[in-house]
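Practice problem. Given the sequence and the SMILES for flavin-adenine dinucleotide, write out the predicted structure.
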Amino acid sequence: MKPARFEYVAAKTVAEAIDARSSFDDTVILAGGQSLIPMLNYRVAQPDAVIDINRVPGLDTISVDNGAVRVGALVRHRQLELSAEAFAAHPLLREALDNVAHIPIRNRGTICGSIAHADAAAEMPAVLVCLDGFVTAQGSGGERNVPASDLFLFHMTTTLDSDEIITSATFPALPKGSGYAFEELTRRHGDYAVAGICAVITPGPDGNCASASLSACGIAEKPVRLSAVEAALVGTNLSDDAVSAAAALVDDMVTNEDDGAGGRYRRQVARTLITRAVAKACQRAAQGRA
Ligand SMILES: Cc1cc2nc3c(=O)[nH]c(=O)nc-3n(C[C@H](O)[C@H](O)[C@H](O)COP(=O)(O)OP(=O)(O)OC[C@H]3O[C@@H](n4cnc5c(N)ncnc54)[C@H](O)[C@@H]3O)c2cc1C
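Answer key:
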């Protein structure tokens, strides 16, 4: 199929893009086009205007500040994945990015595009949620930071206003002494995840779990923070039994029943991925690699 008719606007500044967003009823942003173009071709999206931001200067930079990584709206998945500076500061990002689609898609697709697209099974929104990250958005009302916890509403739906553009996403630093892991299961490598788990674990001086951040993609209608699992882990000695008991609490958070087994399979996958991710994170914390 071909897309329905739309106006094409090649914005040269963020202000031009915001103006264009305000001038039409229904607009979309063309960043990497890896999700948008199929949606246009299948007529899932039939916007009045497509606003191309690829000519806007200054949106393609990665900056690292005290372990936090900020990526501009035109930073491609692959650009961040290959950034030695970002990897040295924040190795979790590369581990998660390795699971995003295939290299040709990562060459074009952007991190901010993935966050704006808000596919509930996408990896980078879950990483943003796990780290308590935020996006910076600009619209006709000015600029604001939107925490990940307030951003994702539902599958492919965010709280951004219709004239807002994400100009950057910020992934906060890993806590000192922590370990990290991103684990997922896909039917084929490069597919969206059946379930994916992002984990950051900080053991205390006594070896017990001092803090835990976990999030998941694929299990619900949006990326979710696994607060009950986190609470059950903190204070334990992170033994296999303690982690298994905590992981079992994910069951109630799995609302995506679309696995042909009423969600049973996805619950089992999520539990297993949690135990793997926590074990890997603990191992890395012990090795002082985070
Ligand atoms: C075969 C295939 C497999 C894939 N597998 C995965 C996968 O496993 N995991 C995964 O996470 N993704 C996957 N993707 C999607 C891919 O990662 C996309 O690149 C990403 O979801 C969107 O980024 P983009 O820059 O291409 O955005 P675009 O396609 O250009 O835009 C997507 C949507 O986001 C909005 N948008 C984009 N940028 C902004 C912005 N700066 N501000 C506001 N709104 C914006 C647009 O309006 C549009 O609605 C896959 C895609 C394909 C084709």
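Check your answer against the key. The radius of gyration is 19 Å.
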